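Quick review question:
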């Protein structure tokens, strides 16, 4: 009997040691809003009160100069998940069947795949928008769980096109609530093991529907185009949609704290691009979604990790969505294969210690519609088929004074650099 008890104690100690090592590996939660403008939330003096986003910031690090890789969603999502410029994977436009734009192929290494290979439980709830074909399903990109939709937009109440894993499933409920509910469930079920959770909200993307706008409650009369895009109709709904997402962020924070894993969980919140003009606000910047001006790609962003990140701090470092891949790998101590070229730069020291972040040239491409943009310090250049523009963001954050003719040498140098970059990341023409 004594030997049996000793053996049981030894086994318990071994299990405890293994469990402690496993739980020491940080959990990662990425919360992505859709079409949320820089000037929407109260965190940035916006017009909608968002107490939970403010709470996230008061306990973490707020970015004032964080950028998406594109001013539309699919390219940003591809860049964030791969740590590479989206041009390298052939996704430079919104993925839609009528555009014949490819999806993210499984030959690409994603955050989810690499983390799953290293023992993490992985999940995506909400919007994918990286391919409609079965081979593009998130399950084939390293996600153990996927509940959501593959397209770029969907009805907030009618979920006939939703998936549970690889299978279509009509799941009842309001989209924002469903995404939050699954995120909460996943955290509770996996609190004793390391996990990567991607919370991909549809809010505040169109169609502009609140929890009250069920199929039964909608007007029977079809809206005219003018009525459809009338700000007086959209903005009250937009406000409620953002408030509901904000509440969901609070539920996720509460769940992490209740589960006792807050000090071992890194959360990053951002938007996939700027807001559309009819609904949201991109103040104080010019432009919005579908624009290379700052309003199109400079977005709200917050990093949260109690005990590791100083509370209530702000950084003005220029950072980008593709920087998340190497940052997460540094935090989780997962090695990136040497054969995989990353374009992103780790923000680990910046986030944890507010260390200086390296200066670098950054690029935004949305060809052939908008051309290409480039950032070199405080200088910003936009080159399209019609013209090229040069702005000094330190003196002209609204990008209202084109200095291309005033500084012709700088303009010529940046234009040449930009065009050379475009060639270096473009995929070969299909045979």
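Suggested answer, residue by residue:
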């Amino acid at each position: 009997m004594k030997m049996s008890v000793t053996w049981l104690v030894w086994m318990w100690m071994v299990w405890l040691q293994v469990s402690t090592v496993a739980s020491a590996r940080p959990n990662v939660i990425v919360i992505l809003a859709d079409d949320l403008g820089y000037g929407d939330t109260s965190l940035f003096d916006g017009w909608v009160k968002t107490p939970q986003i403010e709470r996230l910031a008061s306990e973490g690090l707020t970015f004032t100069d964080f950028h998406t890789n594109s001013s539309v969603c699919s390219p940003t999502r591809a860049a964030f998940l791969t740590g590479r410029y989206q041009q390298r994977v052939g996704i430079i436009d919104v993925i839609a069947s009528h555009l014949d734009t490819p999806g993210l192929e499984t030959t690409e290494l994603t955050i989810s795949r690499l983390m799953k290979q290293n023992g993490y439980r992985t999940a995506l709830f909400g919007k994918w928008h990286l391919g409609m074909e079965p081979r593009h399903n998130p399950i084939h990109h390293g996600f153990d769980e996927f509940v959501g939709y593959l397209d770029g937009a969907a009805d907030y109440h009618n979920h006939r096109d939703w998936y549970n894993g690889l299978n279509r499933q009509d799941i009842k409920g309001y989209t924002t609530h469903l995404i939050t509910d699954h995120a909460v469930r996943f955290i509770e079920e996996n609190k004793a093991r390391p996990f990567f959770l991607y919370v991909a909200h549809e809010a505040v993307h169109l169609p502009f529907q609140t929890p009250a706008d069920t199929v039964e409650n909608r007007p029977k009369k079809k809206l005219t185009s003018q009525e459809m895009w009338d700000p007086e109709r959209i903005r009250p709904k937009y406000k409620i949609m953002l408030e509901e997402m904000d509440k969901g962020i609070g539920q996720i924070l509460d769940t992490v704290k209740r589960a006792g894993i807050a000090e071992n969980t890194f959360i990053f919140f951002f938007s996939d691009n700027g807001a559309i003009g009819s609904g949201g606000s991109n103040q104080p910047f010019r432009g919005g979604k579908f624009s290379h001006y700052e309003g199109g790609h400079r977005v709200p962003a917050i990093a949260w990790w109690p005990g590791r990140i100083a509370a209530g701090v702000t950084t003005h470092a220029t950072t980008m969505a593709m920087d998340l891949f190497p940052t997460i790998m540094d935090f989780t101590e997962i090695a990136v294969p040497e054969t995989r070229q990353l374009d992103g730069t780790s923000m680990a020291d910046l986030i944890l210690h507010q260390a200086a972040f390296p200066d670098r040239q950054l690029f935004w491409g949305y060809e052939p519609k908008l051309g290409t943009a480039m950032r070199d310090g405080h200088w910003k250049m936009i080159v399209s088929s019609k013209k090229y523009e040069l702005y000094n963001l330190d003196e002209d954050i609204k990008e209202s004074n084109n200095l291309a003719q005033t500084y012709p040498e700088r303009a010529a140098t940046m234009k040449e650099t930009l065009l050379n970059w475009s060639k270096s990341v473009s995929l070969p023409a299909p045979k």
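Why it works: The two ends are 74 Å apart (CA to CA). The chain has eleven helices and 16 strands.
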